[in-house]
Amino acid sequence: MIQFGDHPDPATLPADAQHAHPRISRQGTVARATGLPAHLDADHGFTLLEIMLVVTVGIVLAGMAIPAYNGMTLASKSDGSVYQVIDVLETARNLAVSERRNFRVSFTAPNRVIVQREEVPGGALTPISDTELENGQQFVTFPAVPDTPFAFGASAATSFSGTGPWMFTTDGSFVDSAGDPANGTIFLGAPGQPISARAITILGATGQMTTWAWRGTAWFD
Fold first, then answer.
1. Phi, psi (5° rounding) for residue 144?
2. Is the confidence at residue 28, as pLDDT, over 80?
3. Is the pLDDT of residue 197 over 90?
4. 191 with 84, same domain?
5. Helices then strands (H, E): number in the chain?
6. Both 121 and 63 in a single domain?
7. Sign of the CA dihedral 71, 72, 77, 78?
8. Kind and range of the H or E run holding 140
9. What pLDDT was estimated at residue 31?
10. What three-state secondary structure class fits 27?
11. Which domain holds residue 77?
12. Domain match, 109 and 189 both
């Protein structure tokens, strides 16, 4: 007979009892069907310290991710404005060549690009397009951001040599009102956000355009 509190040796039990009875160690620890000691086989929850640690790590990661996400969103919007302006300028240049007419391009603060065709004879102007930059983007310069490597000027958000109006001509060049090649730069971005600075340069002699992005320390094309 086994008395409560006794810890019998399994070897002293009858054969049928040894098979029916859970294994009993000499220290009285009952092993479950898994074969694991009871203190390892039990279901354990998370401690308050563990939960607080996980929450803290999550907060830190979120704090790191949000600024990065905002920066990516801002960059995406700025890049989008560059594509908008490039599309307008390239269309005007291509039409000037294909239609054998001068196409005037003007920039109206804070965010409009207007294209007009000069008719001949007489020089009457026919409206072609009026494009407004999206996502709060504007023609803007930033005190901490220098001129582009081409150094066409940064005295204004839209800075061109010579005197306006400026236009694309029938050979694809970009000229001023006197017909002289005009180099220039268009600066864009989100006001108050220097990291969003973008620029488009135009080489007057050929009408070639180059896009630039400010990366915090330098311009990259």
1. -85, -5
2. no
3. yes
4. yes
5. 3, 11
6. yes
7. positive
8. none
9. 44
10. coil
11. 51-220
12. yes
